[in-house]
Amino acid sequence: MQSSLMNSDDLLVATKFSPPRLNTRHIPRTQLLERLHEARLGNLTLITGGAGFGKTLLLAQWRQALLKEGLDVAWLSLSHDDRQYPSFLAYLLAALQRLGIAVEPGLALDEAGESTLAALVALVTRQAEQAGRELYLLIDDYHHVEAPLAHRLLQKLLDHCPANLHLVIASRSTPPLSLGRLRMQGQVAEIDFAELPFDLEETRAFFEHNLGSLRLTADEEQLIHELTGGWPASLQPIATMLRIRPARRPKLRSLLWKSSDLQAYLAEDVVACLAPELIGLLEQLSPFRRFNADLAAFVTGSTQAAALIQRAEDENLLIYRVDSEDSMPWYRFHPLFGEFLGQRLAMRGAAALEALHRRASQWFAEHELLVESVRHANLGGDLDFAVAAMEQAASTAWSMACISPMLHLLERLPQETLFEHPRLFIVGCLTYAFTARPEKAERWLEQIRRTEAAKNPALSSRFALADAAIALQLDNPRRVIGLLEPAQRAPLENRSLRYISLSALATAYLLLGRVDAVHRLHEDNPILAEDRDNDMALVYESTLILALLRGGDAAEAARLGGNLLARAEAGYGRSSVSASLCAANLCDAYYELDRIDEALAVLANRNGILQSSMPDVMARASVCRARIAALRESPQALQEFLEAQTAHFHKLGLDRPQALMLAEQAKTWLAQGDLRRASERVVRLETLAEGYRGDCRDEVATIAAFARARLALAEREPARALECLARVGGFAERYGRGRTAVKARLLAAIAHADLGQEQEAMDCLAAVLQDAARFGLVRTLLDEGPRLLALLERLAEEGGLEGPCAAYLDELLARGGRDAEEVEPVTARRAPGAEPRSILTPREVEILGLIAQAMSNKRIALTLNITFGTVKWNVKNILAKLGVSSRYAAISLARQQGVIP
User: Fold this and answer.
1) For a Cys-Cys bond, which of 29, 128, 345, 542 suits 283, CB 3.0-4.6 Å?
2) Whether residue 155 is found in the same domain as residue 289
3) Which domain range does residue 847 map to?
4) When comparing pLDDT for 214 and 345, which is higher?
5) DSSP per position, 390-429
C-alpha cells in the first residue's frame, strides 16, 4: 500500500509540539508533581481523566520541572485529525526527532506489515539507547488515536523500551495497551480520574489567584468545592462571573448551574461526540443520586445498560464509582454533569420524568433501600407507595437519613393520613423535632392523644421517645431523663431509634453536668459491632467526645472526633445529620487547640448546625463560628452574625443559646472599647437570666455572671468582678466544666492584678496554668487578649514554672505574639461622649505615653519588658478605641483630653 506519510516537517502543525503557556494563575499540582517525580525513571506514566480535569496543564507543569533539571523533553499534542495511523506516525517521528532520534521518513509503512513495525521500533530504541541520556516524550490527548496499528506500534515501543526513554501519556480514556509485565516490573506509574480533581486547598488557591481583591468566605469556598467536585474546568466560569457580578455571590449555587460557558463546555467538549444511545441512557439516569447497571436496566428498559455504563466509565465521562460492599458497582454523576443531563431530560416532559421516579421507587423498594424508595415515590407522585415504604422503614430501618424524604412527604400528606399510620406518625414527630420545629410535633402529639389511635400500643409505646425529642429541642434535659431512663428497660426494636434514645439521654446528662452518668450509660449500652457505622450510633458515640470537651480535654476530643467525623462522612456524606453533629464537636476541639483553619473547614457550609439542629449543637457551633469570625473577619461582620443568631434563637424560644450569643456580643463590644453597647447586652442578658425558669437555669445565670464580670473589669471594678467570678467558679465545679473553670480563674487573676494584689494574681495564674497545660488549652487563654498576655509574660519572667508547664507557657506567648501580628486593623469607633481615659486600659495609656516620646514598637517592648507582638496588639487596640487611624492622631486626641502630658 502506498504510504501516506508526510515527508516534510513543513507539512506538520508546529503548535502540536508546543505545550500551552503557563502563567501565574495556574495552580501548581504539587502532590501530583511529586508523584510524577517519584516515577520519573519508569518507562511509562499514564494520566487519565475526563475533560477539563487539568491533564494538559499537569503535563505542562511536569515538562517545566524536567527542563529545569536539564533533561531532554519533547512534547506532542494529538487531535481528532491524528486518529489514523499515517498522521499519528508522522507526528510521533517528528517528536522523537526533537529528542535526537532520527528516522528516515521514507521508511515503508504497510499497515499489515509487522516486520516494518519491528524494524521501526528497533531503530528508535537503538538510537534512544545510544543517546546516553534521559529522554522524555510527553504525549497529550492520546484518546484521539483510533488506528489499531498505532496502538500496536506504541505497544512494541514499550515492550522494548530502553531504560533511558520515558513516555508520559495523557488521555481521557485508558489506551488499549497490555501493561501487565511493565506493571509487575514497576515501570508504570498511573494518575487516574479519582486523583485529578482539585482538593479544597487547590480550589481556594485558584480563587485567590483569579479573583483579584475579591475574597470568598470559607462557606463559599466549601460550597463551590462541593458543587464542582474539584473539577478545574468549572472554576474559571465561576471566577469570571464573580468578577463581573460580585453582587450575585449569595446565589452561587444557581449562578454556577446557569453558567452559559459551562453549559457550552459540557455540550461541546464532553457529550458532543457521544453515541445517541449512550447520552440517552445517561440522561435517564440523571435523577438518581447513585445508580448501578441493574437499576439502569430496570428504569430505562435498555438491554445495553451495563455495557453503556462501562463505556462511560472507561471514557471518564464525569461519573465516579461509589464505595459499596455490593458485588455490582454503584456510580454517581459529577454534580454539575448530573444537573446538565437533568436539564436535557426535562425537555422530555414531566410525565416521562415521573415515570422514571416511580420505576426507580419500585426497584429501590424491592432491594430494601427504603430511603431512596421513598424519595423517588415522592418525586414520582406516588404518595401511597411512599407512605407504605416509610412506614416499613419506621418499623425496622428508620434512620436520620430518612429525615429529608420524610420532610418532603410531610409537606404533601394530609394530617389524617398520618393519624391512620401510627409508626409513620411517630417518625413525623421525630422529623419535626430534629429539624428545630418541636412546637409542631408537640401539637400533633397533643391532638393524637385525644383520639382513639392513642390506645394502639404500637403508637403509645413510642410517645416517650417523641416527647423526649421535643423536650431536648426545648432545652429541658430533666424531662428527657424522666422520659427515657424508664424506657431503657424496654429497648426499642429499631436500632436507630434505640441509639436516638441513648443519644438524647446522654446529651441531657451532659447538660446537667452528670458526666459519670454518660460513661455508665455507654458501659451499660455499648454500641454493637454490627452497628458501629449506623448513623445514630455515630451520634451516640459523639456524646463521649462532648464529655471530653465539657471536662476541658480538647486534645483527646480532637483525636477521637476526627476519626468519628471521617466515618460519618464516609458512610453518610458531608451534609448528613450524623456528620453535622460530629462536626460541631470537632470544630469546638480544633478551635480550642488553635487549629483555626481546620476548625473553619469543618464548620464551612454546614448551616444546618447553626440553624436547625439540637440547641446545644447550634449554640456551640455558633460560638465557634463567632470566635473564628473575631479572628478572621471584620468587627461588623462578626456583630451581624451574632445579631442574626441571637434573633434566630429568640424566635425558636431557646434562651440558653440566646444568652451565649448576647455574652459574645458583650465581649466583642468590650474588645472594641464600646462600654455602652457592651453594657446594653449585659443588661439584656441579666434580664433573660432572671426570667428563665428552665432546667438550665444555673448555666444561663452563669453566662450572665461571666459577662457582668468582664464588664466590671472594663469599668475598673475588680472587686465586683471577683464576686461574679466566684459564682462562675461554683457552677464550673458542680457541672464539671473544665474550660469554664479555667476562664473564671484567668479573669480572677486579672482582677487581683487590678486590685494591686500582684502575688495573688501570679499565684492564681500559676495554679490555673497547671490545668490548662494538662489539657493543652490554647484559645481559652489567648482569647482573653493582651491584658492576660501581659500577666503571663510577667509570670514567665519570674521563672516560677518548670518543665512542661514552662514550655507550655512559652508556646502560649509565642502564639499570642503571632495573633497580635496577624490581627487585621479594626474599624470600631469609640462611643459618643466617651473619654479616652475611660476606654483605655492602664497598659494602653502607658504605651500611648511612650509612643508620644517617639519610641518604636521594638523600643517600647524593651522598655516595658513585654513582647513585640503584645505592643502591636495594644497599639491597634488604642487606635480602634480612639477611633483614629494614625499614631499622630491618637497622641493629639489623648493630649487634648489630658490622658498623656
Assistant:
1) 345
2) no
3) 836-896
4) 345
5) HHHHHHHT--GGGHHHHHHHHHHS-HHHHHT-HHHHHHHH
CA separation for the pair 899, 385 (Å, rounded): 78
Same domain, 19 and 102: yes
Beta bridge partners of 330: 322
CB neighbour class for 857 (10 Å; exposed up to 12, middle 13-18, buried from 19) = middle
Q: At what angle do helices 148-159 and 85-97 cross, to 10 degrees?
A: 30
DSSP 825: P
What is the radius of gyration, based on Cα positions, of the chain?
A: 33
Residues 787 and 847 in one domain: no
Q: Which amino acid is at 694?
A: G
Q: Is residue 71 part of a domain?
A: yes
DSSP one-letter string for 215-263: ---HHHHHHHHHHHTT-HHHHHHHHHHHHH-GGGGGGHHHHHHT-HHHH
The number of distinct structural domains making up the chain is 6
Q: What is the pLDDT of residues 673-709, one digit of tens each?
A: 889 999 999 999 999 999 998 888 999 999 999 999 9
**251 inside domain:** yes
Q: State how beta strands 165-171 and 135-140 pair.
A: parallel
- 82 and 176 share one domain: yes
User: What residue type is 873 in one-letter code?
Assistant: W
Residues 568 and 547: their CA atoms lie apart, in Å, by 19
Per-residue cell: 513: 453536668
Tell me, yes or no, whether 521 lies in a domain.
no
Say if 879 falls within a structural domain: yes
CB atoms near residue 809 (< 10 Å): 22
Closest residue by Cα to residue 200 from 170, 221, 173, 231: 221
Residue 860's CATH number: 1.10.10.10
The model's pLDDT over 778-825, given as tens digits with 9 standing for 90+, comes to 999 999 988 888 888 888 888 778 888 888 888 888 887 666 544 443
Whether the CB-CB separation of 368 and 400 falls below 8 Å is answered with no
Q: What are phi and psi of 45, to 5 degrees?
A: -125, 125
310 and 281 assigned to the same domain? yes
Same domain, 98 and 183: yes
429 & 361 share domain:
yes
pTM for this entry: 0.73
